[in-house]
Amino acid sequence: MEKILFVADRIVDVDGSEATALAVQGGRIIGKGAEDDFSTWTDQNTQRIRLDGTVLPGFVESHAHLLMMGQVKEQIDCGTPPNGGVTDILNRIKEEARRLGPNQWILGFHYDESLLSERRPPTLEELTAAAPANPVYLTHNSGHLAVVNQRALDIAGMTVQTSIPGIEKHAGRLTGVLKEATALEAVSRYIPKPGLDEYVRYIRSGSADCLKVGVTSMTDAAMGLGDDRNSKLIWDSYQRASETGDLMVRVQCYARVRDHDSFVPDPMNSPNLLAGGVKLFADGSIQGHTAALNLPYSDQHDEQGMLLYQPDELADVIHHFHQQRRQVIIHCNGDHAIDTAITAYAKILRDDPGNPLRHRIEHAQMASHEQLIAMKELSVLPSFFVNHVYYYGDRHYSLFLGPERGQRISPLRDAVSLDLRFSIHSDCPVTPLNPLYSIYIASTRTTRNGHILGADQTISVMDALRAYTSWAAYLGLREDSVGRLMPGLWADFVVVDRSPFQNIETSRVLSTWVGGECRYMAG
Q1: In CATH, 282-460 is 3.20.20.140
Q2: d(CA 448, CA 251)
Q3: What is the reported pTM?
């Protein structure tokens, strides 16, 4: 097997140790230290590679949606920016209708009414007027809501008499707004599904985006979104992409399940494809007013969100997969949803203490100190959606949650003080994938408007780096293969242009290496 000796001015691991040389053979790290330490290990066939910059472990994205990252790039961008108001989105829809011709589905992603000048999404009537001959389906930035036009409702056979949770009605008519999975899928099931080759293309595109920002290990945290046939095709696509080289990072897939009968792939642990865990949703999105809260929303005093399982129902599904030795991760944004998940986990883990499967709570945005203590006692691990502090923190503070609750979102320092291991994540494509910037957010709590949101919940850059590397690997049960620069692990690392402990918000990735192979080089 080929030997490679990487030499750099600074090779930094997350235990604080530093080196100037990294020995790699067969894609794995053999040792690290000073260059002279390997004088007897190297020979005339050893390749020597000089790395200019600071070497860090490759980032481990613990909660995102790799395939969707590639898929949404082929949809209309309804975000703000580039759109300032509803009219901008409608103009994009008109242009797409002209390009596609009649009867073709028009899909968009990323609209966020709280950022649009009108402070509302496009209406059913506006979408119908913009593309009367096309069904239109626009997904909210959170992924938990959508707005559609009349043509889409007609195709789905949906009328005001339709009784499905999450279909919004007002004054005796449908508004076109759909909330959460049951309502979303009542329409989205009629959207033509991509084929295997298209999915492989999305995977390759998403992989390339990971490498640009130093992510060497990725997660698909809701594979298939609950459609069993589509989930199976997506899993087949991941396997195909793994075989063809289109999957350029190591990916861990969690099957989106609702009940015992949902599709879950057989356990698999290859060098770049891992499956076995399952994903459940206990609630929705704070900015969509569907996260389940113990107290009403600050801007909607009669609204407390949507709880998607009762504790006993959730415990029953968890128990089924726990018995199958599957790791369970549960989407919980609101504090009521977190309470529900903790209650369900406690029922399961009383007979299996220590949480050997490392069941998790995802996002955990509104976790209270008491809830974190309960997680610690159960060994349930949170993965925090820290990007919310920057992208939504101003609005959580002023609109959705109010000052007291808003400044406590993603309580990282509380978790550190309890010695509760956690990860931080982007949930891309909900927010952009950029671990260096996420680490900056975690260490400064800076919002989009330049405010500091809950300064008492900042953590050190080193702890934030751990949360995006070794701790994230631990949450995914893969600490024996990725997340550190140490012998026996894969030689997955990123080279950045400066020390991550100085001006990290402006640091940039120079190159990304997977198994000792350069997969991305800036410029």
Answers
A1: yes
A2: 30
A3: 0.96
